[in-house]
Inverse folding.
């Protein structure tokens, strides 16, 4: 007995949806060290999954993606001028590109 994979149905993401999934690249010291291993780090929407992220990166940048790893970061609870508040939640995607593919993040600057 086989069950259909529901996630593969979302693999075809149009270009407008792609720009809603991929919010911005993350350029930190750790992210630049990962670029030596053909990896790029992006902030993505909280509701997106690995298959949607892979499809969006391939559509926007015209590259082949090998794998996608996701990090969910919960916002810290902080006090702002004595009032208890919470920072926004964040989801990061570490995208591993196949050999021969690269994304130049400094081209738009």
């Amino acid at each position: 007995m086989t069950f259909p994979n529901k996630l593969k149905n979302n693999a075809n993401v149009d270009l407008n949806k792609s720009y809603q999934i991929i919010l911005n690249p993350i350029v930190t010291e750790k992210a630049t060290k990962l670029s030596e291993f053909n990896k790029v780090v992006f902030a993505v929407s909280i509701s997106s999954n690995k298959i949607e992220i892979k499809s969006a990166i391939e559509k926007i940048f015209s590259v082949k993606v090998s794998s996608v790893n996701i990090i969910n970061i919960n916002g810290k609870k902080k006090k702002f001028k004595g009032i208890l508040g919470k920072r926004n939640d964040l989801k990061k995607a570490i995208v591993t590109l196949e050999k021969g593919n690269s994304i130049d993040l400094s081209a738009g600057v």
